[in-house]
Amino acid sequence: QVQLVESGGGLVQAGGSLRLSCAASGRTFSSSYAMGWFRQAPGKEREFVAAKSSSGTITFYADSVKGRFTISRDNAKNTVYLQMNSLKPEDTAVYYCAARRVIGTKTYEYDYWGQGTQVTVSS
């Protein structure tokens, strides 16, 4: 079983930055799981943001965040990060991290989910 706990959300002005963290449990986590970040705005479906393979060699980003967001992972700490720069009001959402064996971009592909952390970007 994998447990995921997100942190780092908050309120920021447009153009600002935030770094989200997702701490994962499990001794074999670092070598076994790809990690993804998703977000869900009020009244909208959950959408893909970024993902990184277990080895860190493969990375995917949604077009809407390319060049602004960076996903990284520290397998020694069982933690994945999402650095968010140049934030826009449309980035406002609850952000979730998720885990699965093989990297993917679809919500339904992921097996484990965190509880989410709120990110609010004011204009």
Structure description:
By secondary structure, the chain is mostly beta strands. Helices cover 3% and strands 48% of the residues. It has one helix and eleven strands. The chain has one helix at residues 29-32; strands at 4-7, 10-13, 18-24, 34-40, 47-52, 59-61, 69-74, 79-84, 93-100, 112-113, 117-122. The strands form two sheets. Strands 2, 4, 5, 6, 9, 10 and 11 form a seven-stranded mixed beta sheet that branches. It is globular and about 40 Å long.
Secondary-structure map:
Layout (H helix, E strand, L loop, with lengths): L3 E4 L2 E4 L4 E7 L4 H4 L1 E7 L6 E6 L6 E3 L7 E6 L4 E6 L8 E8 L11 E2 L3 E6 L1
Parallel strand pairs: 2-11
Antiparallel strand pairs: 1-3, 3-8, 4-5, 4-9, 5-6, 7-8, 9-10, 9-11
Separation, N- and C-terminal Cα atoms: 40 Å
Rg on CA atoms, Å? 13 Å
Element pattern in H and E? EEEHEEEEEEEE
Q: Beta fraction of the residues?
A: over 45%
> Structural class, please?
mainly beta
Largest sheet, in brief, is: 7 strands, mixed
Poorly predicted runs: none
Mean pLDDT across residues: 94
SS elements, strand count = 11
The percent of residues in helical segments reads under 10%
What overall form do the CA principal axes indicate?
globular
Q: With helices defined by DSSP (H or I, 4 residues minimum), what is the helix count?
A: 1
